[in-house]
Design a protein that fits this description.
390 residues; alpha/beta; Rossmann fold; 7-stranded mixed sheet; 14 helices; 18 strands; binds nicotinamide-adenine-dinucleotide; binds zinc ion; GroES-like_sf; Glutathione-dependent formaldehyde dehydrogenase; ADH-like_C; oxidoreductase
């Protein structure tokens, strides 16, 4: 089959690789009908995240049709089922899965000991991510092996196009969880740093959850205008002092709720910021630059909430923890517990409350994947979200 394969920093190729096969009774194989490139893939593309090996298949936003099912997954899935695959692999049985804390499943990351050592603590098994999260082949490919497939899937009805459903795999529940974690009240102003695909989903979610005001921050005009179309007021961090402007806009009080939809920042700005040393950025963010976490802590209204879906890979330096403590802020973060939200979100899509396909700007085949990684990373050609049909 064809797949997008990692070969090193900024080197992804569309290669011919062996088809995946059932390796465990709980596996299923799906024929991929659509997949997408995520901001989290860029941490691997730029090689900010350790634990990649040449030959790894990329991708964790995938959907398709079941073409083979192991004996242990047959009670839940059959050939022909249409499924969206959450980026987090879940066993469905461990103590954390039973509590709904799927992104910290205790059994699906087969390299957990190694990952824990590298990061202090790592996550559940993830598709198409580093070997520290299990090293599972990803879904930017024609076929995908789904481990623990009886639990790791979202069944979706036929008749709704892939474009509307694919983002249940990651960015829609990610934006949603980021907003839910803010515990939004009708009087709240929610400030959202980053208007990439995750920020866009967080904006729509905060509006759906009844925020009085949403203020979104980025520097790219096409992303800021998509944010405004979603109901946000916008600020440009390349032009404005964000802390000052947010204070002005809220009568000096600061927004009650703050969402970091940026994470590892150097590449999120298209690697334009050469003051960042690549290795330091990856594992130890030592900088005097006002990074997002610091701005959020300084500007958030006392007793407010900081919600951080943005991905970090190691230590972050110069975070004003004293201000956070004295303001009584609550910090909520994590990889998304995808399956916790998807029944509700699928219903909202079916009822027409939201159509997550609004975020797609580029539609391509797998062979254009390598070029699309660069376009998405460098924020060229108005690129916000790349949708791939293998
Ligand atoms: P993206 O790179 O497309 O978007 C990031 C945006 O942040 C860009 O538009 C960039 O211009 C903007 N930005 C950069 N520096 C900024 C600053 N100082 N202030 C405000 N905006 C700034 O990525 P994405 O796909 O939207 O993903 C965003 C983050 O969410 C990434 O870190 C990704 O890894 C993470 N993510 C987390 C989860 C999860 O489960 N928690 C899931 C998916 C993605
Ligand atoms: Zn993702
Ligand atoms: Zn589990």
């Amino acid at each position: 089959m064809k797949a997008l394969v990692w070969h090193g920093t900024a080197d992804i190729r569309c290669d011919s690789v062996p088809d995946p096969r059932i390796e465990d009774p709980r596996d299923a194989i799906i024929k991929v009908t659509s997949c997408a490139i995520c901001g989290s893939d860029l941490h691997l593309y730029d090689h900010f995240m350790p634990g990649m090996e040449s030959g790894d298949i990329m991708g964790h936003e995938t959907m398709g049709e079941v073409v083979d099912v192991g004996a242990g997954a047959k009670s839940a899935l059959k050939v022909g089922d249409r499924v969206v695959i959450p980026f987090t692999i879940i066993c469905g049985e461990c103590d954390q899965c039973r509590r709904g804390n799927f992104s910290v499943c205790e059994r699906s990351n087969r390299n957990k000991a190694l990952g824990d050592k590298a990061f202090g603590h790592t996550t559940a098994g993830l598709f198409g991510y580093t070997h520290l999260t299990g090293g599972y082949a990803g879904g930017q490919a024609e076929y995908l092996r789904v481990p623990f497939a009886d639990a790791t899937h979202i069944k979706v009805p036929k008749g709704i196009p892939d474009e509307k459903l694919l983002f249940l795999s990651d960015i829609f529940p990610t934006g949603w969880q980021a907003a839910v974690q803010c515990d939004i009240q009708p009087d709240d102003t929610v400030a959202i740093w980053g208007c990439g695909p995750v920020g866009q989903m967080a904006i729509r979610s905060a509006v759906l959850l009844g925020a009085k005001r949403v203020i979104a921050i980025d520097r790219l005009p096409e992303r800021l205008s998509m944010a405004r179309a979603g109901g946000a007021e916008t600020l440009n961090f390349a032009e404005d002092n964000i802390v000052e402007r947010l204070n002005d806009m809220t009568d000096g009080k600061g927004p009650e709720k703050c969402i970091d939809a940026v994470g590892l920042e150097a590449h999120a700005t298209g690697s334009i910021d050469s003051m960042y040393d690549r290795a330091k950025q990856a594992m130890m963010m030592e900088t005097d630059r006002p990074h997002v976490l610091r701005e959020m802590i300084y500007v958030c209204r006392p007793a407010g909430v900081l919600s951080v879906p943005g991905v970090y890979g190691g230590l972050v330096d110069k975070v004003p923890f004293g201000a956070m403590m004295n303001k009584g802020l609550t910090l909520r973060t994590g990889q998304t517990h995808v399956n916790r939200w998807t029944d509700d979100l699928l219903k909202r899509i079916e009822e027409g409350q939201i159509d997550p396909s609004f975020v797609i700007t580029h539609k391509v085949g797998l062979d254009q994947g390598p070029e699309m990684y660069k376009t998405f990373r460098d924020k060229q050609d108005g690129c916000i979200k790349v949708f791939i049909s293998p």
